[in-house]
């Protein structure tokens, strides 16, 4: 996949005091017009946005949020794909490359809309910075997230010519991956804002009940003990892995049809572990990635534990 640098028309200068001239953004080559469309899209005051880097617990939080926003309608959740109920903003254009229909899945949603995106703060709709709808951000240890990206890619026919270590080496040597640290730190430094709820995959694994309670409070929704019990069961790793509506089958089939590449079958909800990278990588390679992470986070004066909220 070829990337190119992209400069948005405006930056969210009202949110963070930083030198935006130094902020580099990259996009897949050929998607500049789509990003301009996103920049100008209409945002509703009662929208709820879920923003993450890929494979950071996005689907887990997405299902949680949809249920909270839809009165814990478990029957409806089990009868429609998650991606249909709450669209991935970039997906329609990735598949069909048609600007006329690119935002249709989001525009067809009834309010309150739950919208998922992997775009960084400067490439999200400009109206987000003025209307400030509720936004949830989830981060995850990059070592686990990148490994999960590797296997998810192989499910669609990508990365088939690379070993895991080759894939990770390319990632940590790319300029685009460096921008992932801007992606997370910009939201991390906004975490005290009343419109933003920032958490991590690791915190969700530690105490899912608390996260559900926090989200309900953040979205001004109530939850009974019976509903909490149902949520904890429905959102358990075993249930999520067995649930055909939360394993992105709807999206994966479209990507496979578009590219027609040989692929491997890997469940989207694969291991769901904290520290699963230890089973996949040598200690030497883990040390190499940790050095890469520390080097880049030093620019922001934060640690990985800070970003994962493990020292709170």
TrEMBL record:
Signal peptide: none
UniProtKB keywords: Transferase
Key word Transferase present: yes
GO MF term set: sulfotransferase activity
Sulfotransferase domain sequence ranges: 46-299
Keyword Transferase: yes
Family note: Belongs to the sulfotransferase 1 family.
Protein name in the entry: Sulfotransferase domain-containing protein
